[in-house]
């Protein structure tokens, strides 16, 4: 898939609730074997533990020229030298994050399945918009983000789009021509061998 014209880039999400002490070797192993475009840290956990994970992720990712963002925590992103934030409230915090972090920071916005939220986030200055989950998931309350949403976005909007959530090899194959980034996280970390799981998804 990654050899196809206009193929998306791989966007990696660190495992939710992982301790910094166990995350490092796993992360380095995956990032040494696959071309990661961006690394995202979920915002769950104590501020102290998130700070440790942020420092660890930044060290590993920046050594490989990979940008690092964190869910929602603007101040933590500033304090730990991260490249930006991934906002989970659609367009609502985009202008605030941009003002706090500056024009050079990455500001992404997760917009669920809402075309309206996506357009508002893009207009507010988001660097990318994320839609999902793309497959059936217990995490979302709404129906999955349909392929036609990504089709429409890719044809009409210039801001890059990320596909994420409950992804399978078949879904990735369908989304590849329509997405700028494919975000994978729980799909690999829940498996006994994350590298093998990612190789199965990212072909």
Describe the secondary structure blueprint for this structure:
Layout: E1 9-13, H1 20-33, E2 36-41, H2 47-62, E3 67-71, H3 74-79, E4 84-87, H4 94-101, E5 106-110, H5 115-124, E6 128-131, H6 147-156, E7 161-164, H7 169-175, E8 181-184, H8 186-189, H9 194-201
List the main descriptive attributes of the protein structure presented here.
single chain; 203 residues; alpha/beta; eight-stranded parallel β-barrel; 9 helices; 18% strand; disordered N terminus
Description:
The protein is built from 9 helices and 8 strands. The chain has an 8-stranded parallel barrel with strand order 1-2-3-4-5-6-7-8, surrounded by 4 helices. Helices cover 41% and strands 18% of the residues. The N terminus is likely disordered. Helix 1 runs parallel beside helix 2.
């Amino acid at each position: 898939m990654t050899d196809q014209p206009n193929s998306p880039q791989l966007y990696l999400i660190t495992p939710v609730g992982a301790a910094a002490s166990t995350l490092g070797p796993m992360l380095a192993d995956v990032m040494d074997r696959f071309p990661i475009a961006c690394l995202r840290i979920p915002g769950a956990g104590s501020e102290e533990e998130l700070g440790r994970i942020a420092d660890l992720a930044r060290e590993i990712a920046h050594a490989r020229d990979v940008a690092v963002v964190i869910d929602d925590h603007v101040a933590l992103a500033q304090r730990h030298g991260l490249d930006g934030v991934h906002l989970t409230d659609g367009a609502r915090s985009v202008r605030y994050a941009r003002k706090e972090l500056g024009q050079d920071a990455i500001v992404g916005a997760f917009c669920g399945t809402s075309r309206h939220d996506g357009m508002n986030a893009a207009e507010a200055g988001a660097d990318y918009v994320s839609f999902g989950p793309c497959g059936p998931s217990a995490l979302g309350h709404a129906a999955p983000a349909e392929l036609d949403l990504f089709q429409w976005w890719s044809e009409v909007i210039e801001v890059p789009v990320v596909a994420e959530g409950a992804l399978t090899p078949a879904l990735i194959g369908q989304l590849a021509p329509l997405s700028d980034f494919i975000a994978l996280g729980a799909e690999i970390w829940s498996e006994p061998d994350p590298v093998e799981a990612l190789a199965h998804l990212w072909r």
